[in-house]
Amino acid sequence: MLIDAIHGAKMSTKLLVSLKVLVIQLNPQIGQVDQTIKRTWSILDKVTKSATYVKPDIILFPEFALTGYSFHARKDILPYVTKKDEGPSFELAKSISEKFQCYTIIGYPEEDDEQKLYNSALVVNPQGGQIFNYRKTFLYDTEMNWDCEENPEGFQTFPMDFSKCAKLSNEDSYNRDVTLKASIGICMDLSPYKFMAPFNHFEFSSFCVDNNVELILCPMAWLNSTSITDKQTLHNNSLLEAAKNKIAFALKEQGLPLAGSQGIYQLKIGDSQRTPRVPSDDSTSEYKDMDEPDMSNVNYWILRFFLFVL
Predict the structure, then answer these.
(1) Which of 102, 148, 187, 208 is the catalytic position?
(2) 3-class DSSP string for the chain
(3) Most CB within 10 Å of its CB: which of 20, 90, 174, 226?
(4) Which of the residues 111, 136, 218, 244 is marked catalytic?
(5) Is residue 63 flagged as an active site residue?
(6) Which of 63, 111, 143, 286 is catalytic?
(7) Active site residue 136
(8) What is the pLDDT of residues 145-199, one digit of tens each?
(9) Choices 3.90.1150.10, 3.60.110.10, 3.40.50.2300, 3.40.50.1820: CATH for 2-192+212-217
């Protein structure tokens, strides 16, 4: 990462910034918050015992990291909503930040003082204090089912302070402190508004470019991996295939797409017309094909940040 460090009114110097980010996926099940927390600590324990472990600057969890995502009505999600500075998600993030002396970002269902509901992500600093709470701005269809509100502030920025993570190009070690302007985008935030806005409006990435955002953090649960299953029990191909089919059936039953829904577009970059959603005809993007990364989603996210490569 290369950023400008301002010295005086006219001169700026480029700083090289090196951050270590630990990204954790949990596959939470609705009604199993305690089990998911236990699994989180188990994962972190394994990571710290790895021969390649390096202390992270940020630990990033997905949206609704502990609760599961697919709620079909307001009454279904109410047992899991919390205020921004209390509840299992905040307490877990606080404990992790204090233990690892890093920032922790975790997605959770929020209820404000007026009983409005949000898909939110809280940011806890290395001292265990909450420094920011972001509410998802662009909502996905599923969130409408439980009366989720759009972020009234829209996309936002906030500062993050890092110790000994920066250096000048002619320096050998990262011994400088740095404050980065950060922004959070949660899944649908990266897509066209309601899948109806022209694709080339690039709403979130345009905001980041226009506001000189230096660090973009995206808590998302989109992945395609056999981590969703217990590999120890999948000791033959028939069991693996059965597990894949079970996952595919469960997704259909919950109204979730078999293909990564962010990647099923016919793209017309130079066209300002609405970009239609179309069914994917590429079977490799289906969740039942769990042995390979879902590159359709990866390519889609990269494309949504096209402005950064212009």
Answers:
(1) 187
(2) CEEEEEECCCEEEEEEECCCEEECCCCCCCCCHHHHHHHHHHHHHHHHHCCCCCCCCEEECCCCCCCCCCCCCHHHHHHHCECCCCCHHHHHHHHHHHHHCCEEEEEEEEECCCCCEEEEEEEECCCCCEEEEEECCCCCHHHHCCCECCCCCCCCCEEEEEEEEEEECCCCCCCEEEEEEEEECCHHHHCCHHHCCEHHHCHHHHHHHHCCCCEEECCCCCCCCHHHCCHHHCCCHHHHHHHHHHHHHHHHHCCCCCECHHHCECCCCCCCCECCECCCCCHHHECCCCCCCCHHHHHHHHHHCHHHHC
(3) 90
(4) 136
(5) yes
(6) 63
(7) yes
(8) 999 999 999 999 999 999 999 999 899 999 999 999 999 999 999 999 999 999 8
(9) 3.60.110.10
